[in-house]
Structure formats: structure tokens, C-alpha cells
Design goal:
The complex is a heterodimer of chains A (1005) and B (451).
Chain A (H helix, E strand, L loop, with lengths): L10 H5 L2 H9 L19 H19 L24 E9 L2 E10 L2 E7 L12 H10 L9 E5 L5 E6 L2 H12 L4 E5 L5 H14 L2 E4 L6 H11 L6 E2 L6 E5 L10 H12 L8 E6 L4 H4 L3 E4 L5 H15 L10 H28 L4 E5 L9 H14 L7 E2 L11 H13 L4 E5 L3 H4 L2 H7 L4 E6 L11 E4 L8 E6 L2 E5 L12 H9 L10 H10 L7 H7 L2 E2 L29 E5 L13 H4 L8 E2 L4 E3 L1 H6 L6 E7 L2 E9 L7 E5 L23 E5 L2 E5 L3 E2 L1 E8 L3 E2 L14 E3 H6 L24 E6 L8 H9 L7 H5 L8 E7 L6 E7 L8 H5 L5 E3 L5 E3 L9 H5 L6 E2 L27 E2 L5 H14 L11 H5 L5 E5 L6 H7 L3 E2 L11 E4 L1 E3 L15
Chain B lengths: L13 H13 L4 H27 L14 H25 L6 H24 L27 H34 L3 H10 L7 H34 L11 H27 L9 H32 L2 H12 L3 H13 L7 H4 L2 H23 L18 H24 L5 H4 L14
Classes of the chains: A alpha/beta (1005), B mainly alpha (451).
């Protein structure tokens, strides 16, 4: 008894009962946020947090009603070094998206990164970016990121009962205590960072831990087959820049396989040679991929036939054409495959084999996207390796020395880990960089129940987070120091461009903290660590130089050569698993891939480059299959494979196998955040465990499937209304041969005369040329534009209404027989017509012509009659149907202050990145320098991995764009309307004997 | 010599005429009227709510999209503007041509014009993204530098055309009302009523000088209004015809729109007159079956004109050799919105054909149904034209137009506004021109008013 109460209300009070005292102090009987009294003193009373949230939400609701939010701006009292308000700073950095590395230049404004651009000198992407890469900046500002370390209170069933805040100190203390017990396992993706690798090694020795690497869309089958064939477990780089003849067998080289940005860059180099050296792309595939749409020749094969096809091709090369390269013996088992494939592909096999031989050393055969990862995935890779070896491509187009050496992840390691977890020998599991509870399958979560403590280093309490005890919030790549070796010997430093938004640590910092036994690692910050690590390794350039360049290439890399092929690997080819009937084939999309960036709305609304559908995944079936089973677009079907079943809408995909059902990975997340949750279905549940002497891996394709109609139907958000050109001159295609004879081949020109004199442009006249021959339709420009120009996303409901806001779009048309059509892509943005039809009809002069030839939109003058949009023959104008300006905090930080955020009711459209033009012109005015061609890059142009877009001054006869416009290959879309647009196209040239023709007019909707 | 049929039946004396016409505005409303009035008012309030939602939330509530930038608002705007045309035609053109039969329907037809233009006028404002800034379409001196409107834009022409039309129609209607307001004033027993109608009648005393001035002004205004019959809808048609889109960019639009406007306007007059005659039987003596028959003849003739225009459009689309134009028309008739095209054809071309038969021309149920069909058909004509943009040059842009709740709310709600105004008019304003009917009282009758 501390004190005696003079007045008391109850006996408990009189007794000074400790329980009662606690009750008095807590004011409320229960805290609305705290879980089971787990709130400790240092975490503060949750009530305050609750009131804070209440206050904030009330403030937000009242703010929401204000049309124009008034914001106070305060000038810098002491201006930070380097920061000039209104002037962007650029920092070289890098990051790795799954297994694809990017060298980037980060644009920051007033201390916040707003845009990523490719680093031109980085060999991983040479300035090109992917749609996903751009989205990286928005993922930094994702409102669903966790704001600090969390402790998940798991119940008996090991599901998350409640999440409470914790501190680094207490979390580290608890984890260190646990680590000391031994049985530590670390699960990561393939680790690209040399410093992280070094730290992991130290960690492994310090805690006798095991490290497992697994990538959600893995390449274990590739490295395993490389090991079997060449004794070297490596993921080689496909040098499309060197290849003159490319055969892809279900390898989506230009879309989502391995490093599509780099591969597209290389592919375009070969495309741009408009002579006999032009490369040729032959694609055999089960599903229609972006690569398939770019193929010169494309063939549809059925699931499970990939290996047979490659072997048949090998047989043709070795036996029929007698080019064996010492592998005569293989005919004993390739003959049957040749026999099997010959009825359908006799002519093709012969022709391709001939060309492969004539291009030997410059040819490339590739396979390996998820749709080829069936039970024959490794034999397929062995067959591909064999053919590449026979043709002498190994070491040339298959670059195994400058390889993606960091990709070490494999399914086999994951199986190992799960085995150990089940047996209970894993006491502590640390997970970083991957989300196995979502992307592996339910067996992971099940096995995790046997682990005493699961620690998840991630940015949110996602699927894996919610089965973990501790969520150690991880800093975003734009917030932390790091590094990467994305290609062997090519090192890049990852610079932070903003202080962590939340209470987060990078994985390096976390490892450092644990290695220092929870003392927060204050003897070495992540920056110091990265710097000291590299200072000993970098010879030559200074540290600052490396930071500035963003990349450092180790000199004297040994050049690769032909490796000796281990013939025992051929034994695996002798017996392949047969596939029959309708099968399910998972594939990864250009936008979502494994689903790791699923909560970025840009990517959800990014129209798939092939189907043009967004906000969903769907079962793709061939038109023939759909007709036979009377399926219509959007019909909901039940897919059953093994014990699992899912209901999904159907998309009828021209050009895919009748025996295949395609289903995209990366959808169906349930704990990613507001954007991604419940979008699509989680296809990975169908994945099957497959183990034999070759290896242990997941099977993603050729899975027997039953498709049943449910009678329901849901609309799919397709941004494109119609998929045939209806015989109109929209995308002009010609063959290489015809082009060489007549550069204008395929173009129907119109004689235009006008009563009026033309506009006069005395200074610059901005224009853009689009090379349809280089464009692969990857859509990176769409997201580049979205990021640059503060373009909102609208959601599935409004995409269905035709209300998507993309200023830049890529139209895709099919040509020819729906069973195997060819496809063309056409990027469209505002055409900035000289005789702009939008300008004459605007009643209030809100869209006017500049003296530099651009068509300028004056947002604050616009009343929104939408007459301009109606009258635009290209329909590139977008209207703000609602107020899209209010975004969830902190997404507003991703806004580009150079571009007006458009209010409700006004029209908007591509500006030719007018702000970029003005920025350069202002700089040059101050510096008194003259504009040179190439000084101004539009966002789309900058991002384009194939350099298909060229922006410049038409009035300068030496500019690239003037040269392009003078080129006979250039044509004007809808020339007969005499709008004289400033955007013109260059014919698409296919390296084939003859083009596919539309058999029908109309239909095909 | 053929004897003229009487324009007013029932052996009316001058006093009978005044009594019959003024009764409607002098006695308290009956149960039928109140029922109708409350119903229409509810619809009007609903309309206001719908509009409030659209203005406060955004145009996105309606079905308009990319590529169909104009939807229900523009369709219904053109529809109501078209309705107005019959009023001007009857009151002005027929006046100039000294068509005496116009007298008993002119007032109501003009009122219809005014209300239709009022109803229509709201739509172009509402369809803009920022209706609160719609006044920027007016060329007024401002402080925004030399910022002016774009006189090249058909929408500006529209602003002038419609506002001129509204002004002239209202003035014309009002001037015609002055002698009748004076009559009501003179009959009024209630001092407030007397005061109000006294002000409205602008001190009319019925002197020869008054009549002289009145006749002069009326004729001048009729002369002014006459070109408007042609100009307003021509200019409205320019909204489409000046654009370069296939299906819109056609020279036939001005005459075709004018014919369609007169067609739909007369149909609306028939609809309204049938209702007025039904609910207020004394009017049957003023608006006789002969009147109705004449109007039905006009409907038939303009219906044929419209039908000719439909055919001619197709012919020109084919004859032009322009592939986009050809596709636009094939798509109209056989594309996804073919149903709307065929509704239009059957309502506008086929249904008026019943008026070849005198029996049907004089049958109230037949003409009522036919007039409703024509109104529906004419709305669909504008629907067909406006949503043509759903398939234009580049197939990738092709899309759909699906009306939402708010589209339907705005469409049907606008009828609430129109009928509310019309019902108020019936109770506040002499619905037949007393001053004009009296001079024609004896047409077709023997001198002295006896057969």
C-alpha cells in the first residue's frame, strides 16, 4: 500500500488494487487499436493513435469537399545545397525488378523522386525502360506500405489475429534472441546486390544459417539445363543485338522473359537494318505473346510440343540437311519428334533449318517462358542448348560469360526449404524480396506453421507478412543505398533519392543490425558499408564518378566461347512426358509479371500489349475452341486442374493453340493493398510439384484442365474497341523484299490540294516520327507518359466505359486468319496537326496552335464541350469525367510539378512534353546556346527500348525527324483528311516472303 | 363554289369565345389538373435532383465516353429545339401566308416553342464539363486580355442561333398575348389579379391606334421569325456537319434537320392539342378536327421529306466513294445500334403513312399514337446521328454508348420541365388567342352567323 485513500468509491480503490489502478489510468476499458494488452509503454497509448487517425480522417473528409484545395507554400529559409526550387535534379541509380536490372536516372523535384528514366550508359537497358520500371516510382509512394516495423500476433492456427506496432529495438532484440537458438534459414530472391551477398555470407557464418534463393518467376530450369549440358549453372544472356536469325519457342523475349528491355533494344538494332542483314524472328508458341506479335513468321504449337519442335528442328538440321556438328547420334531419338511435327510444319522446318544453318553462329534459339515450364521444361532447355551448340551459337548469341550470374534462384531450393520447415529443423525463417505465401502456393504457408519465428523483410503486411511474426519494413530502392550486379561484371550503385518516408530499413541495414547484435548497426550505416565495400573494388574511377555514372564495368571480362556439350545430358531427351487434351498454361504478363508490383494502379490499368485488357486476368482460349464450345468473350468458366478450381472470365485470343488455356500469373492478390486486392484470380494454385532425376521444379504449363461454363458473364476491360483494320490504311506493312524494290511499298498516297495557304512556322516546328518497324508494342511509353504527365487511373468500371486517361496509347490490330494472325502495333499520341480539327471547333479557344507547331491545350480556359474530342479523327483527346485530382497520400508526391493537374470537366491530351521543350529552351536562353537535334526528348521517346520514337525540329533539315519525314517509308495516317499532322509513321517491314491478308471485312470484333 | 368549313364550331358568339377561353384561367383547378400538375411537378423535381448530381459530381455520371463525346444531352437538346419549330412555323409563317386556320392553335404552338427552347437551352450548358463557366461561350468584354470566343466554332453559332431564337419567340409570343391579357384584366374581379394582368397587358386599351401598332409589330415580328424557322436548325445541324467525321460531315444536314424539326414540332402540337381537347372539352370547338387534319397532312409531308433525306444520305454515302462514310452508314443500319436506326425509320417514315387515309387523319386515337411515335422517332433520329462517333476512322477507337440512370433521368426529367411549364401556361395564359379567333369566327358561315 503506497497511500491510504481518504475518499474512496469502491473497495478496490480503497485497497489500492493494482488492477484497478491500471483501469483508472487507461481511461477506456478497451483500446480500439491495441491487441490484447500487448501495447507497451514505449509504443505509446493507442488511443492517441486512434484520435490522430480520427482527426486525420475527419480533416480529410472535410478537405474532400473543397474544389480547389488551398495549400500554403513556404520558401526555404536556408536553401539545401543542390536544390533550386523549380529545377529538377537527376541522380543515377539502379534497381532490380525480379530478375531484370535497370540502370536509371531518377528525376527529383524539391527532394522527391518523381520519375525514372533509363540510364543510357548502362548496359542492362541502354536507356530503355519497361512499363514496370516506370511504375517503380509509384510503388515508393504506395499508400498501402507499412509505416514501421510491426509485430503480428499470430493465433494457434498461425493466422494473423492482430498487428501491433513495434520498434526496431524491441524487434531486433526478440529476433536476435531467436537467432541465437540456431536453425536459421534465409529465403530471398536471386540476390543481385554484391553487398547484400557479402552480408548474407557473414550472416550465414555468424548464425550458421542456410540461404535459399527462389524467384517467383524463376529460371531454375534454364540454369539447371545449362549445368547438365555445360556443367555451368548459369542463366545466359540472349544477345538479340548480335542475332540475325532468332527462333523463339515459347520464350517471350520481347515481353516478359528474362530481360525484355535489353532484349528489345538488341532486337531493334537488328530490325533497323533495312537490308539483307535485317534480323528475322521466327516464333513457335502456344499462347499469343508480345514476341509472337512481332514475329516475322509465327507458328502455333500445342502445349507440350515445345521440346518436340526443337528436336524436330534439330533433326532437320542434323539429318535432313546433314549439318551435324558432331552430333549425328542424336537422330536416334529426334527422328520420332521429326515424324510427329512434320505433318504440320514440314515446309517450315525445312526452311527454318536451312536458314539456321546459313546463319549459324549468328542465330539464336531460345525457350523458357512460364508457358513452356511443364514437365519437359528442362529437356526443352537441353534441346535448345543442343541446337545452339550444333549451330555454334553458344558463346556468341548465347552469352554465358557476360551472363546474368546473379540469378541463382530455383524452385529446387524452395522445395528443400519447405522440406526443412516441415521437419521442424527451421526455427527462424527470414524472408526478403519474395512473397512466397502468395507466389509459391499454399504449401509454403502450411509449412511456415512449423517455424518458431518467421521474420518478413518487406514493405507491407502482405500475404507473407501476415503469416510472419515480424514485419520489418523495408526501405524502397529509391530510399536506400545499395548496389547491383545485373550482368556479370557490370556493377551499378543504387543511390537513395529521398529519405525513407516511413520508419524503414533496407535489408542491408537489417542484416548489419543483426550482425551487431541489435545495436542498430550504428557503427556502420548502409551508405558507409556500400562505399567501403566498393572503394576496395573500384579501380580507376573515383567513387563520386561511379555514383554519377551509375555504372561501373569491370575491365577485361573474359570473352565467352563455345563450351563443350556434355552428351550425357542427351539422355534426358529420350523420354519426354506426353501431353494430351486441353491444358492450362500460365504465362506472365508484361505489366504484372509475378504480381510483385500489383498494387501500382498504373500497372493494373496498363493494357496488356497483346489482349489490350486491363484490371483482370482471364482464361485465354482460341477462337476455334470458343466456337466449338460456344464460349463468348467474358463468359465465366470454372477451370479445374488437379484438386483446385477457379472461376475466371474467358478471353478469346486469336493465334493460340486450340489445346491451350492461358492464365496470367500475378493476379488474385489478397493482401497487397487497395488497388490489387481481389483483382483477378491467383493462377499459381494450379502449379504442380514435379521431381525427377533432372531436378525438382514447379510445373506451370501443360496441366490437364477441365473447363466448364458457369452461365455467368462479366465484361473484360478492353481499351481497344475493334481489332481489325477493316481494310483501311492504318498500319502499313510490307515485306523486306518489296521494300528493297520500292521504299514506298504498301503506302497508298493521296493527292491533297487545299485552297488555303499553309501555316508558316518560322522558328522551330516540333514533330515526332514513329518507326512502326522498331516498335514492339511493349507499352513502356504509355507508363512513361503517365508518370511524366500526372495521368490518373480510373479503375475497371470506367475503363469499361471507355474513360481511360492514357495520353499515349498503342493500338494493336490483327491481320489474317484468326487462328494464326499476324499483329501490328501502332503507338498514338496527339498528332499536333497543322490544320487541327480540334482547334476550329472549340468555342472558347481552349485549344490553340502554337507558333512552334504544337497544338496546345489551355486547361483553365476549357469549358468541356468535348467537341474537340469528337472531331479528332485519331481520338487522342481525353476528358476528365470526374475529379481525378485527389489521390491518396502520399501518392501526390509522385506528381510532376511541371505538368498541370487537370481539374474535373476539362479536356486533356499529349502536349509533346511541352514542359520539356520549355525547360530546354529556357536553359539554352540563359546559357545562350543553340538548340541541337536531340536536346529534347519526350517522355515516351526517352523510355522506348527500341528507339522507335524520334522527336525533333521539322524546320531543321538535318534533324533526325526531318530525315525521317523525307524518307519514302514515311506515311501520314488519314492523310486524305488533310490535317497535316506532325506525327508520322514509318512502314512496318516484315522479313517474310509474303504478308498475311485480311480475309474478311467486318466481324472479328 | 366550295363552301369553307367553319374554323370554329358550336355557333359561338363573341362572348362565348371570351368565356370559353378565359374560363380555364379564371376557375380553380379541378382534380384532373391537380393530379397532372403534381405528377409533372414531381418529375420536374426529380429532374432537378438529377441535374444537381450531374453538376456536382461530373459528366462521368452519364453514358458519354471516349469515343462518344456527345450523348443524351446533345440528343435531347436537338430534340427539344426541333419541337419548337412548329410553333414558329404556325405563328409566323402561316401568319404571313394568311392561313386563317392557324389562329386557334397558334398561341399554344408558340407557347410550346418557348417552353421547348427553354428546356432545350439547359442541355448544352449541362453537357459541358464545367457548366458554371458556360458563359464563356458568350462574347462579352472581359478582363482576360484579348480573350474572345472562337467565331469559327459551330457551337458559337449555336449560342447565337438559339439565344436569338429564344428571344424572338418570347417577344413574339408576348406581343400576341397583350390584347388577351387586357381582356383577362378587364374581366378580373380580384384586384391583385387585375393588377398583374394589368401590368402584363402594358396598358392596352383596345383603341384603333393600339390595334394599328399591334398589327404592325406583330407582322414585323412574324417577318423576323420566319428566317429563324430555317436558320436555327440549320445552325444546330452545323454542330455535326462542320465536323469532319463520317456520318456527320454531310451537306444535306441543314434542310434535313429543318424538315425533321417541323415534322417533330407538328407531332408535338398534335400530342398537346389532343390532350388539351381531352381534358378541356370546350376547346374542341376551337381546335376542331379540321385543324388536326391539316396538321396531320403537314406531318405526312414532312415525314416524306425526312424519309427522302434518309435515303439520300445513303445514296450519297455510296456515291461519294468515301470508305469511312460508307462504313458509317452501313454501320448505322446494320451495326450494333441498328435497332435505333430501325426505330427511327419505322417511327418517322412508316408511321406517318397512315395519314394518307382521311379516316385516320381525322381519328383522334390514331393521330395521338402516330404523333407519339413521331416524337419517339425524332428523338432516335438525333440519337442515331449523335452516336455515329462510336465507330469512326480508326477501328481501335471504336466503342459503345450505354445510357445510364442519369441519362434517362435527364431525358425524362426534361419532359417534367416542359409539361410543368405547359400546365402553368394553360392556367395562367389564354390558351387560344381570343383576339385572333374572333375575326375568324364566321369563316365558313353565312353572314350573321347563321347557316
Amino acid at each position: 500500500m503506497e497511500k491510504s485513500n481518504k475518499y474512496w468509491q469502491s473497495l478496490e480503490e480503497w485497497r489500492n488494487d493494482p488492477k484497478f489502478k491500471e483501469l483508472v489510468n487507461s481511461e477506456f476499458m478497451t483500446s480500439p487499436l491495441a491487441g490484447d494488452g500487448e501495447v507497451t509503454e514505449e509504443e505509446g497509448p493507442a488511443r492517441r493513435h486512434f484520435l490522430k487517425l480520427m482527426g486525420a480522417s475527419m480533416a480529410l473528409t472535410t478537405f474532400g469537399c473543397v474544389r480547389r484545395p488551398a495549400q500554403k507554400i513556404v520558401p526555404y529559409a536556408n536553401r539545401p545545397h543542390e536544390i533550386v526550387p523549380g529545377v529538377a535534379n537527376y541522380y543515377a541509380s539502379s534497381f532490380v525488378d525480379g530478375v531484370e536490372g535497370f540502370g536509371t536516372v531518377v528525376t527529383t523535384r524539391e527532394g522527391r523522386p518523381i520519375k525514372l528514366e533509363g540510364n543510357k550508359s548502362h548496359p542492362a537497358n541502354f536507356g530503355g525502360m519497361s512499363a514496370r520500371a516506370h511504375s517503380h516510382v509509384l510503388s515508393l509512394y504506395d499508400p498501402d506500405r507499412a509505416n514501421g516495423p510491426k509485430n503480428n500476433l499470430l493465433n494457434e492456427q498461425r493466422t494473423n489475429k492482430d498487428t501491433v506496432n513495434t520498434t526496431w529495438k524491441s524487434a531486433d532484440a526478440a529476433i536476435s534472441k531467436q537467432l541465437a537458438k540456431g536453425g536459421v534459414a534465409v529465403l530471398t530472391g536471386s540476390v543481385s546486390s554484391p553487398t547484400t551477398k557479402a552480408l548474407l555470407n557473414t550472416f550465414k557464418t555468424a548464425f550458421s544459417a542456410d540461404h535459399y534463393a527462389w524467384d517467383s518467376i524463376g529460371l531454375g530450369h534454364v540454369s539447371q539445363a545449362q549445368k547438365l549440358c555445360y556443367g555451368q549453372s548459369v542463366v545466359p544472356a540472349y544477345r538479340l543485338d548480335k542475332a540475325k536469325y532468332i527462333v523463339s519457342v515459347d520464350a517471350d523475349l520481347l515481353g516478359s522473359y528474362l530481360n525484355p528491355t535489353r532484349q528489345s533494344k538488341g532486337f531493334a538494332q537488328g530490325r533497323k537494318k533495312l537490308n539483307d542483314d535485317m534480323n528475322k524472328l521466327v516464333v513457335f508458341e502456344t499462347l499469343m505473346t508480345l514476341t509472337g506479335t512481332n514475329a516475322d513468321e509465327r507458328f502455333v504449337i500445342h502445349p507440350g510440343e515445345q521440346a518436340s519442335l526443337v528436336l524436330a528442328l534439330t533433326h532437320e538440321v542434323v539429318s535432313e540437311l546433314g549439318f551435324s556438328g558432331g552430333f549425328e547420334g542424336v537422330t536416334s531419338f529426334t527422328a520420332s519428334h521429326h515424324e510427329k511435327m512434320k505433318p504440320r510444319f514440314a515446309k517450315a522446318l525445312n526452311a527454318i533449318a536451312k536458314e539456321l544453318i546459313s546463319y549459324r553462329g549468328d542465330a539464336l534459339v531460345a525457350a523458357g517462358s512460364p508457358q513452356s515450364q511443364d514437365e519437359n521444361a528442362i529437356p526443352l532447355q537441353i534441346a535448345v542448348n543442343l541446337l545452339n551448340t550444333i549451330l555454334g551459337n553458344d558463346g556468341k548469341t548465347v552469352d554465358h560469360s557476360n551472363s546474368y550470374s546473379f540469378i541463382t534462384g530455383s524452385d529446387a531450393q524452395m522445395y528443400n526449404l519447405i522440406e526443412k520447415m516441415k521437419s521442424g529443423s527451421v526455427k527462424t525463417l527470414v524472408i526478403q524480396g519474395v512473397n512466397p505465401a502468395y507466389a509459391w502456393g499454399d504449401s509454403f504457408a502450411e509449412a511456415a506453421k512449423n517455424v518458431e519465428m518467421v521474420v518478413y523483410v518487406g514493405d507491407r503486411n502482405d500475404e507473407t507478412g501476415s503469416i510472419s511474426h515480424y514485419l520489418l519494413t523495408e526501405s524502397h530502392a529509391l530510399e536506400s543505398w545499395g548496389d547491383a550486379e545485373v550482368i556479370k561484371g557490370v556493377y551499378s550503385i543504387q543511390q537513395p533519392t529521398i529519405r525513407p518516408l516511413y520508419d524503414t530499413r533496407s535489408f542491408n541495414e537489417t542484416l548489419l543490425a543483426w550482425l551487431n547484435k541489435g545495436s542498430e548497426g550504428d557503427d556502420k550505416t548502409a551508405h558507409d558499408y556500400v562505399k567501403s565495400y566498393w572503394s576496395s573494388k573500384i579501380k580507376g574511377p573515383s567513387w563520386n564518378n561511379v555514383l554519377q555514372n551509375g555504372v561501373f564495368t569491370e575491365a577485361n571480362l573474359p570473352s565467352g566461347g563455345q563450351r563443350s556439350f556434355n552428351r550425357t545430358a542427351l539422355n534426358y531427351l529420350k523420354k519426354l512426358t506426353p501431353v494430351s487434351g486441353l491444358t492450362l498454361n500460365m504465362y506472365s504478363t508484361v505489366g504484372l509479371r509475378d504480381g510483385s508490383l500489383a498494387n501500382v494502379s498504373w500497372l493494373q490499368e496498363f493494357p496488356d500489349p497483346v489482349t489490350k485488357i486491363c484490371w483482370d486476368n482471364y482464361a485465354t482460349v482460341s477462337p476455334k475452341y470458343a466456337a466449338e464450345n460456344s464460349l463468348k468473350e467474358g463468359d465465366v468458366v470454372k477451370l479445374t486442374s488437379g484438386k483446385n478450381s477457379l472461376t475466371v472470365p474467358v478471353h478469346i485470343q486469336p493465334g493460340q493453340s486450340d489445346k491451350a488455356v492461358g492464365l496470367a500469373l500475378g493476379y488474385g492478390r489478397w493482401a497487397a493493398g487497395e488497388v490489387a486486392n481481389k483483382v483477378g484470380v491467383r493462377s499459381i494454385v494450379f502449379a504442380k510439384d514435379f521431381k525427377n532425376t533432372m531436378g525438382h521444379n514447379r510445373v506451370l504449363a501443360s496441366l490437364p484442365v477441365k473447363l466448364e461454363k458457369t452461365g455467368k458473364s462479366i465484361p473484360l476491360a478492353n481499351v481497344q474497341g475493334h481489332h481489325s483494320m477493316e481494310g483501311r490504311q492504318i498500319v502499313v506493312e510490307t515485306t523486306l523484299k518489296d521494300f528493297q524494290k520500292n521504299p514506298e511499298s504498301g503506302i497508298h498516297r493521296h493527292k491533297i490540294f487545299s485552297l488555303w495557304s499553309k501555316h508558316k512556322y518560322t522558328g522551330h516546328k516540333w514533330a515526332l516520327s514513329v518507326d512502326l518497324n522498331s516498335c514492339t508494342g511493349c507499352g513502356s511509353c504509355i507508363i512513361a507518359c503517365q508518370s511524366e504527365n500526372n495521368i490518373p487511373t480510373v479503375g475497371k468500371k470506367y475503363v469499361l466505359n471507355g474513360r481511360e486517361m492514357h495520353w499515349m496509347r498503342v493500338d494493336r490490330y490483327y491481320v489474317g486468319d484468326p487462328e494464326n494472325p499476324s499483329a501490328v502495333h501502332q503507338p498514338l499520341m496527339c498528332f499536333h496537326c497543322d490544320n487541327a480539327p480540334c482547334e476550329t471547333v472549340c468555342p472558347v479557344l481552349a485549344t490553340v496552335h502554337s507558333d512552334e507547331g504544337t497544338n496546345d491545350m489551355i486547361y483553365n480556359r476549357c469549358v468541356g464541350t468535348r467537341y474537340c474530342a469528337n472531331n479528332c479523327p485519331y481520338k487522342v483527346r481525353r476528358f476528365n469525367w470526374f475529379s481525378y485530382t485527389s489521390v491518396k497520400t502520399p501518392l501526390h508526391m509522385a506528381m510532376n510539378p511541371e505538368v498541370t493537374v487537370r481539374s474535373r470537366g476539362v479536356m486533356e491530351k499529349c502536349t509533346f512534353c511541352n514542359h520539356r521543350i520549355k525547360e530546354v529552351q529556357n536553359k539554352q536562353r540563359v546559357a545562350k546556346t543553340k538548340y541541337k537535334d536531340g536536346d529534347i526528348l519526350t517522355a515516351c521517346q526517352q523510355s522506348c527500348p527500341t528507339d522507335a520514337l524520334v522527336f525533333g525540329d521539322m524546320n531543321d533539315p538535318n534533324s533526325q525527324v526531318s530525315k525521317d519525314f523525307a524518307d519514302k517509308r514515311t506515311y501520314i495516317l488519314l492523310e486524305e483528311l488533310n490535317n497535316t499532322p506532325s506525327v508520322r509513321y514509318k512502314t512496318k517491314i516484315r522479313n517474310v516472303a509474303s504478308l498475311k491478308k485480311d480475309k474478311h471485312h467486318g466481324g472479328g470484333h | 363554289m366550295l363552301k369553307r368549313r367553319p374554323l370554329v364550331t358550336g355557333d359561338k358568339t363573341y362572348k362565348d369565345v371570351t368565356d370559353d377561353i378565359c374560363e380555364l384561367i379564371e376557375r380553380p383547378p379541378g382534380i384532373h389538373f391537380m393530379g397532372l400538375f403534381l405528377g409533372v411537378k414531381a418529375l420536374f423535381v426529380f429532374y432537378l435532383v438529377v441535374l444537381a448530381f450531374i453538376v456536382s459530381t461530373g459528366m462521368g455520371l452519364m453514358g458519354v465516353n471516349h469515343p462518344v463525346g456527345w450523348g443524351t444531352d446533345i440528343i435531347t437538346f436537338v430534340f427539344w429545339i426541333g419541337i419548337g419549330h412548329a410553333g414558329t412555323l404556325i405563328s409566323a409563317v402561316l401568319f404571313l401566308f394568311r392561313q386563317k386556320w392557324r389562329t386557334s392553335i397558334a398561341r399554344t404552338a408558340e407557347a410550346m416553342t418557348v417552353f421547348a427552347v427553354m428546356t432545350a437551352g439547359l442541355f448544352p450548358i449541362l453537357h459541358t464539363g464545367r457548366p458554371w463557366l458556360a458563359y464563356w461561350l458568350l462574347p462579352y468584354p472581359n478582363q482576360r486580355g484579348p480573350l474572345w470566343v472562337n467565331f469559327r466554332s459551330p457551337l458559337i453559332w449555336d449560342v447565337f442561333a438559339v439565344s436569338t431564337y429564344a428571344t424572338v419567340s418570347i417577344v413574339f409570343w408576348y406581343v400576341g398575348l397583350i390584347p388577351d391579357f387586357a381582356t383577362v384584366r378587364d374581366r378580373a374581379k380580384n384586384p391583385i389579379r387585375k393588377k398583374i394582368y394589368g401590368i402584363l397587358s402594358l396598358g392596352w386599351r383596345g383603341t384603333a391606334r393600339d390595334w394599328n401598332h399591334y398589327e404592325m409589330v406583330y407582322m414585323l415580328l412574324a417577318g423576323l421569325s420566319t428566317p429563324l424557322v430555317l436558320s436555327v436548325h440549320s445552325i444546330v445541324s452545323f454542330d455535326f456537319a462542320v465536323a469532319q467525321l463520317p456520318g456527320w460531315h454531310t451537306t444535306i444536314f441543314p434542310p434535313y434537320f429543318v424538315a425533321g424539326a417541323i415534322f417533330s414540332g407538328f407531332a408535338m402540337v398534335i400530342t398537346l392539342m389532343v390532350l388539351v381537347r381531352h381534358f378541356y372539352p370546350p376547346f374542341k370547338n376551337y381546335v376542331t378536327l379540321d385543324h388536326m387534319e391539316v396538321m396531320n397532312k403537314i406531318i405526312m409531308v414532312t415525314g416524306l421529306l425526312v424519309g427522302y433525306a434518309y435515303g439520300s444520305e445513303f445514296f450519297i454515302a455510296w456515291y461519294s466513294g468515301a470508305p469511312y462514310e460508307q462504313y458509317a452508314f452501313i454501320n448505322r443500319a446494320f451495326g450494333p445500334y441498328a435497332w435505333s436506326y430501325w426505330i427511327m425509320i419505322s417511327c418517322n417514315v412508316i408511321s406517318p403513312q397512315v395519314f394518307w387515309f382521311k379516316k385516320f387523319r381525322r381519328s383522334i386515337p390514331v393521330m395521338f399514337v402516330a404523333s407519339i411515335f413521331v416524337n419517339i422517332g425524332m428523338w432516335f433520329e438525333r440519337y442515331v446521328i449523335t452516336i455515329t462517333t462510336h465507330r469512326d476512322f480508326l477501328p481501335a477507337n471504336w466503342g459503345d454508348f450505354v445510357m445510364t440512370f442519369f441519362d434517362l433521368g435527364a431525358l425524362f426529367g426534361s419532359f417534367g420541365m416542359f409539361f410543368l411549364l405547359f400546365l402553368l401556361y394553360l392556367r395562367l395564359v389564354p390558351a387560344v388567342s381570343i383576339a385572333e379567333v374572333k375575326p375568324v369566327l364566321f369563316v365558313g358561315k353565312d353572314k350573321g352567323g347563321h347557316h
